[in-house]
Each structure stands twice: as C-alpha cells, then as structure tokens.
Amino acid sequence: MSRASRVIVIGAGLAGLSAACYLRADGHEVTVLEREPLPGGRSTRITQDGFAFDIGATVLTMPSLIDDALRQVGATVERAIPMKRLDPAYLARYADGSTLRVRGDRDAMREEIRRVCGDRDADAFDPFVAWLERLYDLELPHFIDANLERLWDLARHPLAAAKLVATGAFGSLDRAVSRRFADDRLRKLFTFQAMYAGLAPTDALAIYAVITYMDSIAGVYAPEGGMYAVPRAMADAAAAAGVTFHYDTTVTALARSGNRISGVQLDTGDVVPADAVVCTLDVPTAYRLLLPDLSPPRVLSRAKYAPSAAVWHLGVKGGAPEGAVHHNIHFADAWERSFVELIDQRRMMTDPSRLVTIPTVDDPQLAPEGCSTLYVLEPVPNLGGPTDWRSETPRLRERLLNFLETQGYPTDIVTERLYTPIDWQAMGMAEGTPFALAHTFMQTGPFRPGNREKRLPGLFFAGSGTTPGVGVPMVLISGKLAATRVREYAP
Length: 491
Ligand SMILES: Cc1cc2nc3c(=O)[nH]c(=O)nc-3n(C[C@H](O)[C@H](O)[C@H](O)COP(=O)(O)OP(=O)(O)OC[C@H]3O[C@@H](n4cnc5c(N)ncnc54)[C@H](O)[C@@H]3O)c2cc1C
Fold this sequence. Notes:
Radius of gyration: 22 Å
Strand order of the largest sheet: 7-6-15-16-17-14-18
Bound molecules: flavin-adenine dinucleotide
C-alpha cells in the first residue's frame, strides 16, 4: 500500500483517536467516523442542567501513553491536557470504619501502611513495589504493546517469558498479595484491580498485578476539565494535523471490492471509499452488524464477558463531605462471596463494594456554583444473568441513595442519570458490559480476538474487545497496534 493511503477509523473513542494519531503520523489520509456528536465513546461527556458528567472512565493512569499518541500529531500532554497527580489517588474506606489513603509518593505510602496496618506490612511495601515493577517491565514491551496472534508469538521473547514465570506471574494474584501483607485491608486494596479486567481477585493470575501497578503505584491523574479533556484534546490535535472527523455519522456496512475492504457505507446510504478500515466497535457487535456473513472468532462462541457496572451520576447541592477525596472506594465486608455472586452466579452482590468519584473536588467548574457532581459506581452482573433491569433499576437507585446518605454524601439532587447494563447494551456493548471479554488467561494475548480480519484484507480492529484489552491504557495501545497492522498491510 502506498504510504499516503486512505484509512477510515470507525469510532472516536480513545482507541479510534489513538489509531488516528498513529495512522496520520504514517502519512495516511485519515477519516474518523463517529456516531455521536462528540468524541470519547465510553469516556465522553454529557451535560445536564449545568452539570458536566464523564460517563465512564474516571481513573486516569499512564498519561505517558496519551503523550505518545499526541506526539504523533505534534502535540504533548503537558501542553494539551493539563493534569495533576492525585494524592491520595484513592481513599479506601472499610466496613469497620477505618480508612487508608493510597498516597502518591512511595515514602508516604509506606508510612500510611505503617500507621494503619503496622510495621510488618509497611516493611513489605518496597519489595512489593519492586516485584510489580519487574512484572510491568517484562509484560509491557513484550506481551502488551505487541501484536500477538498465535500461541507461538509468546515464544518470541523466551527470556522475558522465562523471567515472567520465575517472577511468579502465573501464580495466583490473591496469594501473591496475601503472602506479602498480613492485613486483609491491603489484600483488598492491592487486588481489587482484577475487577477492572473482569476477574475475581481470587481467580486472577499475578500477571494482572500490572493493573495494580498502573493504578496504585504509577499514579492516578485528574485532567483539568475532567476526563473528557483527554478525547477532546486528542481529537483536536489529530484534526489540527489533518485528520478529518465526521460526527453524527453512523457506519452501517463495510464495502468490499472482491475479497478486500474498499470503504464503508453510512446510514445515509453514502459509501466512503478507503484502502483500509480500523473498526473500534466492540468486536462481537462488529461481527453482528458489519460482518454478518463471516463467522466471528472462535473465542466468541464460548465467550466469558466481564461483569458490568451501574453508574449513577448526580448533580447535587453542596460540597464534598469532610475527608472525602476525588476517588473514594467503599470496601464492603463481604469479599470472596461477592465475586461468586457477581461473576459465577451473575446476580447482584448482596454486600457490594462501591466507588464514589467526586470530580468537583478538583474541578469545581464541572458543576454550578455551590454544587457538586457525584459518580457512584457499583459492579453489577452483565446481561447473561437473570436480573430484570426494569424492576431492578428503581430498587438499585434506592439502595444507592440510602448508601450515599449513610456515608454522609450530599443528596440534595438537582439532576441525575443512572446507567445500567441495558444502556451499555444500547450503546453497542455485547452482553451489556462496558468491560468487554473478561481477561481470563484464555481470552488474553493471542487468545483474545485478533486485530486483523484475514478473510477481509484491509480490515483491522482496535478497542477493548481486541488486543491488548480493556481500560484507557490498553485501548490507547490497541490503536497503536492497529496502526502497525495498517503499515504492514500491502494489497
Ligand atoms: C462505567 C465505566 C467506568 C470505567 N472506568 C475506567 C477507569 O476508571 N479507568 C480506565 O482506564 N478505564 C475505565 N473504563 C474503560 C474505558 O473507558 C474503556 O475501556 C475505553 O474508553 C474504551 O474505548 P474504546 O475506544 O475501545 O471504545 P468506545 O469508547 O466505546 O469507542 C467506540 C466508539 O465507536 C462509536 N461507534 C459505535 N458504533 C458506531 C458506528 N456504527 N458508526 C460510527 N461510530 C460508532 C461509539 O459511539 C464510540 O464513540 C470504564 C468504562 C466504563 C463504561
């Protein structure tokens, strides 16, 4: 393919935006087609009664990956997305009333552990961080930021693979953490991130401790203007570098010439020609809507989807309660039982842990004067379970309201919006989960749906349904990996 070919990116979520930046840097003529009026996808913005809500991602980690993408189009994070590192990254609140702050600085974190959990666990912190760093350094370049398609691709870096095994990456995450820390509160704090990958901490392999590393050690950031500042800045930088964006534009079919991709068809009936297409729809949805004549990747026939999340956005009168910070995790007493209920039985947790994010703590402009925005997330089953969301939604709202009142959050509600798995499904997410296929070992790396469709040359995938996986850092990498595929493609 000539260097300056026409590439269409379907979707202006973070995966699509990342792909657009890397593709543009390769000299392609890039057009992004987005169904919604704004960029961002699961990190987009809704504005209601003067309150600005980020609908999905709120915990921003690894801004260097955003910087990498921005630099492809002549911008930088520093200039385009002013942000601050949160300290504490989280306030962990436990059922017994105790609290623990995840501090931004290692010395401060060690001393926080000493204060709350004692000397033994404080002394275990530095070796724990060293272990996480080893895992991260081995995994990121060789197994995450890499196009892995077949099992033997894993053997491309035998030394790194051997070191990973020696590091204990294929043991249990829960045991790896429990072995190091005696206090159960730290066990919860350093393993709950497995849920981001759709796994119970007790079932997750220690390789997923890289999420703990990104989340609790490498830092959590708050962009000025909220999370939406990230897709907004990426879209603006890409546009300034020559990428064309069409919003309110839905792709309904893929156009073909012979057995190759030749463009896309829009809901208006228009066909937009292209030499290659990067599709960022959830992969099962892409096959259902855009590739009905091709069988989906085999892994999807017995797919295990991550649990979903209900998110209640509230615009309220008043400020954050004393002591509350940007991200507040309320750990329930129940632990193993909760994951059995949520993941194995696919029903609501009887004693759920919840995340309450208060973006206005750091950015009051997201709400009218004297008001706050609250974002309450409860993990809930995906639509593979028996929950009837028509009857469950009002009950869930009542429980969340009761929880907020009990915990002292302001509940003088001006405006609100509750997202459930039904909403995620309506947005095109298979099984009503915004977290895609769970990262079980057999749905990770070369076992996850790949990012190219060999039966339709010129079609590539990015986003959380393909490699490397779910979450802002991973989908940014997925955009880069898809651009690499386009570079390698020669019709
Ligand atoms: C509630 C929630 C909380 C989360 N919390 C975090 C967090 O704290 N930290 C973190 O790192 N990650 C978090 N995530 C995950 C993260 O947001 C996602 O993994 C990531 O944003 C997905 O990006 P994407 O580009 O793959 O998909 P999307 O953002 O879904 O982008 C796909 C885009 O394609 C568009 N589209 C779909 N169909 C069509 C079509 N036919 N034609 C044109 N356009 C189309 C969609 O409108 C959308 O804009 C969270 C997600 C949710 C929902």
